[in-house]
Write a structure and sequence with these properties.
It is a single chain. With about 130 residues, the chain is α/β, with parallel strands linked by helices. The protein has one domain. It is about 35% helix and about 15% strand. Strands 1, 2, 3 and 4 form a four-stranded mixed β-sheet that branches. Strand 1, helix 2 and strand 2 form a beta-alpha-beta unit. The longest helix is centred in the N-terminal third of the chain and has 14 residues.
């Protein structure tokens, strides 16, 4: 929806029409290519919806504010978030979303099959408080 809707509210409204029809109580935003690679400056997401990821994060935030369970799925490498996943996590932090959503880290299948990895942190480092 972030690629075709003009802003986060439009994306929220489009997804919510279906969610309401089927009484959905939880939504997952699977952030991946091509929108994740166009995020650019995550600091700009706070004031600019030029990037599809920013619009998707805005829609996710609206679902959280409406009382829905929200999760964000980000791609990872065997060593942690990808570069673009890190930028997206920073954009989430800038939007104040870290306490509003669950974050799922998905290791890309091409590298995960032969690895034995420890369980990932429940939140990307950008969302962790010190």
């Amino acid at each position: 929806m972030g690629q075709v809707c003009a802003d986060g509210t439009a994306a929220y409204n489009a997804i919510n029409a279906v969610a309401t029809q089927y009484s959905v109580s939880a939504v997952d935003f699977d952030i991946e290519e091509p929108e994740i690679e166009a995020i650019g400056d995550p600091d700009a997401c706070a004031t600019n919806n030029a990037f599809a990821v920013c619009r998707e994060l805005d829609a996710a935030k609206l679902f959280a504010q409406a009382g829905k369970t929200v999760s964000i799925t980000l791609p990872t490498s065997p060593t942690g978030l990808t570069y673009y996943g890190g930028l997206t996590a920073k954009a989430m932090k800038n939007k104040g979303m870290c306490s509003l959503s669950n974050v799922h880290l998905r290791i890309m299948p091409s590298t995960a099959a032969s690895l034995s990895l420890p369980a990932p942190s429940p939140r990307p480092r950008a969302c962790m408080t010190r």
